[in-house]
Amino acid sequence: MSAQTAPGTSATPxxxxxxxxxxxxxxxxxxxxxxxxxxxxxxxxxxxxxxxxLTDLPAFPTSSVDGWAVRGDGPWRIVxxxxxxxxxxxxxxxxxxxxxxxxxxxxxxxxxxxxxEESTRDADGRVTGTPRRxxxxxxxxxxxxxxxxxxxxxxxxxxxxxxLAASCGHDTLRVRPAPRxxxxxxxxxxxxxxxxxxxxxxxxxxxxVPAWLRRYGCAVDPARxxxxxxxxxxxxxxxxxxxxxxxxxxxxxxxxMHGPVDHLHPALAELGAEYVVNTVAVRPGFPMLVARVTGPxxxxxxxxxxxxxxxxxxxxxxxxxxxxxxxxxxRPEPEPPMITLGDEVPGRGDFxxxxxxxxxxxxGTAHPVRHVGSAMLRGLARADGFAVIEPGTRGRPGDRVxxxxxxxxxxxxx
Length: 414
Ligand SMILES: Nc1nc2c(c(=O)[nH]1)N[C@H]1C(S)=C(S)[C@@H](COP(=O)(O)OP(=O)(O)OC[C@H]3O[C@@H](n4cnc5c(N)ncnc54)[C@H](O)[C@@H]3O)O[C@H]1N2
Ligand code: MOO
Description:
Layout: E1 14-15, H1 16-29, E2 35-38, E3 46-47, E4 51-52, E5 62-63, E6 67-70, E7 77-82, E8 96-100, E9 112-115, E10 119-121, E11 127-129, E12 137-138, E13 149-151, H2 159-167, E14 172-176, E15 180-186, E16 190-191, E17 201-202, H3 209-215, E18 219-229, H4 233-244, E19 249-253, H5 264-270, E20 274-278, E21 280-283, E22 289-294, E23 300-306, H6 310-328, E24 338-341, E25 352-360, E26 365-368, E27 385-389, E28 400-405
Parallel strand pairs: 1-21, 7-8, 15-18, 15-19, 16-17, 19-23, 21-25, 24-26
Antiparallel strand pairs: 2-14, 3-14, 4-13, 5-12, 6-8, 6-9, 10-11, 20-22, 22-23, 24-28, 25-26, 25-27, 27-28
Helix pairs in contact: 1-6, 4-5
The structure holds ligand LQZAQKY5 and molybdate ion.
Cofactor: Mg(2+)
Enzyme class: transferase
Pathway: Cofactor biosynthesis; molybdopterin biosynthesis
């Protein structure tokens, strides 16, 4: 897929799904080199290579119970004790047993394990009982054989992955680093404290966009959040250039249109940027864009232009920034899961409609929320994500449609 037009030329909106594929592909070719990180620091990053186990799992025959490892038929004479953490001597004689702890290595020549609660001792101190038919120990390689691939590259590192990596012997994981992001907020009308009024609005994006970016796995240094940047072309160019020097992604808000103080497009032209996507056939948020700037080191860095209307800015995050970050971290393009609409949702003509919805976990349906103007955040603050209404269609109750979640971890839904 080729990138869209060069800055300065008029843009034809690209379809929402094509735009997502374009930015994902652009991110993938620019993905930073993998790094090795200690297990404890890997949560939330992305596996850069498949996870293979360094040993058989389990690595040795491991008792699943507290009891007796026995050889031959009982009663058995006790010849020792095996605790977890050591190599036991073999049971050399028929009719003998060792006391064994859960997790201990089963001695060679043991035939069976007898649970302590299913055993008795006779007058001579010998052990009696009937071992269960089912083996009470785990065999080496039962879970995985040494060298076996357990997880593919490109999946997120979760606590489950960290635990698995530790249990199969890894101290570090080769991962894609967290993309570093900066935020530049444009708009001289913005207030950064106190109530809005007298023609000025409160900056809603400076405090919230870094939080969304972090939830997408970005590292955002607070020093790289500049809100607001003065509404002049030189200030825009300088701010973007400076931010590009040490991040992978610069998000900007506002100025995506062509109003008297909308300087984003001219600034991108001055920086020699090339559009990956310039305007998307989606409502709200259509003036969103992603541009690529090649640094002196030859590596591509990205500018994501989020529209100034606050809900539109979030639509741009879920529409373009999420697949771009997936590409930059070597993850597959996010595939929206399907949901069932519980109510009517209007279409937006030839454009895709991203409609804020709240999921009803009881009924398994999605319901549009109120207060969803592109300048509003009231609906969004109570929503789980967006139902995707394809161009030329409208949503009816019972329709199955794609769903783009807001990056809210389970348990944090509003
Ligand atoms: N002639 C046209 N004008 C506009 C069109 C159009 O098609 N033709 N589209 C509108 C749409 S849709 C959008 S979205 C906006 C996008 O504009 P910009 O990205 O250039 O954003 P601004 O003009 O800077 O701001 C738009 C709006 O949002 C408020 N804003 C900006 N930043 C923030 C912030 N950080 N926190 C809260 N609110 C913010 C700003 O005050 C404006 O009200 O263009 C329309 N115009
Ligand atoms: O597309 Mo604008 O982003 O509707 O508000």
